[in-house]
Amino acid sequence: MSKNKVNKVVLAYSGGLDTSVILKWLEDEYDCEIVTFTADVGQGEEVEPARAKAKAMGIKEIYIEDLREEFARDYVFPMFRANAIYEGEYLLGTSIARPLIAKRLVEIAQDTGADAISHGATGKGNDQVRFELGAYALMPDVKIIAPWREWDLLSREKLMNYAAEHGIDVDFAKAGKKSPYSMDANLLHISYEGDILEDPWNEPEEDMWRWTVSPEKAPDEPTYVELTYEKGDIVAIDGRPMSASEVMEYLNKVGGENGVGRDDIVENRFVGMKSRGCYETPAGTIMLKAHRAMESLTLDREAAHLKDELMPRYAKMIYNGFWWSPEREALQALIDQTQEVVNGVVRVKLYKGNVIVAGRKSESNSLFDEAIATFDDDEGAYDQKDAEGFIKLNALRLRVAARKRK
């Protein structure tokens, strides 16, 4: 589809410098009508100013949506049922927000009769892949416009000059205020890239972190939190029922106060390069530890081991942008089936950056049998003589091979 055939575009719009420039650039380059979409996924910043900025630029169809609960309930929580973690460290904070935003871009395009969507992701990163794979999975014939792959405005200075030339009012650009880091935030995390972090040897500056105190400055007394699980999801904290987004907001607060959730990672991007990023994920760090503790008590051994074998594959699907793929949906069905028995309470102790499991219980689904596990007299619950045959059967192939070697 050529530029002059695009009639209407739905733009993922933050109101910042990049997307404000993109809005004007789309009008000039494609001569099309623009619809803006701004999502609140818990980034902690006011989203309503984007409405005023879009109106000032002549936009008539403006979508501002609070997606925090949907994001937590339908994306983050299902991912944590799988204990998903990419390359052993990354809790997928940016990755898991993209399929929801892609879904709403497509739905708004369908509702408004738009034939294209546009985003501000660069041509070097993973987000372009995630947005576009999601969009194509849900609207296969949609046209996607990625300005960073088309224009020559490849520096902040060029973007600011373009904004000044076209009368685009971007307050922080005029004032010259900008964090030295490229940041992304939502209910699950805040990420930092760029500036001194581009050298993996440099330690992050302490004043970079926004959500967490340093473990050294965290309280000297631990904080205890009790998490109630139903079918693998947290439904209450300290006995108080909470929605999914309320759970995450609370755990981000209490975790951040105790220095929980900092991470410094060099990861392998889907597009091929290595990237160094720092992350704050207080709620996610607590949720992962507690969920595994709940599963340890309630989940059958082989079901738990199967989940652990499949988890890296599942995590890679999300990282690479395949949330809307049939393989992810098939795995999710298996994972969710295992969670039927993951019910109970986990008590965690938060102390100077650590999440320590202090207790776990399940009235209805615990597979822990004290009569069998005890080191005291088990009164016939377990016949220790049975272990001899079990060991010999498992040793049979080893003994045969050893005899052959001799």
Within CATH, the superfamily of the largest domain carries the name Argininosuccinate synthetase, chain A, domain 2
Largest sheet, strands/sense/barrel = 5 strands, parallel
**Shape, please?**
elongated
Structural class: alpha/beta
**Structural domain count:** 3
β-strand percent reads 15-25%
Would you identify the CATH architecture of the largest domain? Alpha-Beta Complex
What average pLDDT do the residues reach? 94
- Give the total of beta strands: 14
CATH topology of the largest domain: Argininosuccinate synthetase, chain A, domain 2
Q: SSE order in H/E notation?
A: EHEHEHHEHEHHEEEEEHEEHHHEEHH
Helicity, as a percent range: 40-55%
Question: What's the CATH class label of the largest domain?
Answer: Alpha Beta
Strand adjacency order, main sheet: 3-2-1-4-5
The total count of helices amounts to 13
Query: Termini distance?
Result: 72 Å
Instruction: Note poorly predicted spans.
Output: none
- CA gyration radius, whole angstroms: 25 Å
